[in-house]
Amino acid sequence: MLIAQLSDCHVMVDGDEAAELYxxxxxxxxxxxxxxxxxxxxxxxxxTGDLVNYAQREExxxxxxxxxxxxxxxxLLAGNxxxxxxxxxxxNTHTYLPKSGPLAYVVDGWPMKLxxxxxxxxxxxQGELGSDQLNWLEKELAKETxxxxxLFMHHPPFNTGLTTMDEMELIDAAxxxxxxxxxxxxDRILCGHLHRSIQTNYKGILTQTCPSTSHQVHLLLGEAxxxxxxxxxxxxxLHYWTEEDGLVTHSDYVKQYPVIWTLKDGVQ
Length: 268
Ligand SMILES: [Fe+2]
Ligand SMILES: [Fe+2]
What we know:
This protein is an alpha/beta fold. It has a single domain (2-265), classed as Metallo-dependent phosphatases (Purple Acid Phosphatase, chain A, domain 2), CATH 3.60.21.10. The chain contains 7 helices and 13 strands. Strand 2, helix 3 and strand 3 form a beta-alpha-beta unit. Helix 2 packs parallel to helix 3 (57-67). The two termini are 35 Å apart. 40% of the residues are buried. The site of one fe (ii) ion has 6 residues, from loops. One fe (ii) ion (FE2) is lined by residues 8, 10, 50, 79, 193, 195.
């Protein structure tokens, strides 16, 4: 099983300065073309939130048009920039999205149980799961006795040292931590939101954030932190599962870089 995780594509329609500065729709188009044509072709794709920038209908229409070109199944999560009702309405071919309530769901049919959570707190930069969703998560974890689980969510439950981003936090992280601590079947928690590749050991579980298909957040840690974006390359994550070795994660660039040397060129 090979899962591609794209995140924080922040699709915007033409017409304002930010759209011109970031060209996010072009960047997502590049990512879709890359996944359709690359050697390491994924079986499925998760997009971990901030699908669009201003939560506008025309952005979702554009986003949906681009993502429809993916030649493998794709699964959408809500981030703080998203509007869950518009996601449901415009991306209506994504029939796994619940018709009401949080956009939380299970993707089955794979060697790991894949659970998507919804941290969107309408109109706020922070995230929240809420007690109903946490109860649902607990039930899903309790009934999975055979396979390991991957949790997908937009807001990470840990602080990163990027202090201005950390303020846009998962406000019920403590309650989430209590739930996941009660289960030993969670292999990975995969998040977005930070626009950087960051890993930590959270409650004994490898927990990480995915870079953006568009712009990355400036790496300024601790007191040096000031919120800003940098033109580092668009990136995504590839989560590679085999029976022998379990889940291993690679980060990859959307751009294809030239190969400098291969074994058949001879020993150097
Ligand atoms: Fe974002
Ligand atoms: Fe976000």
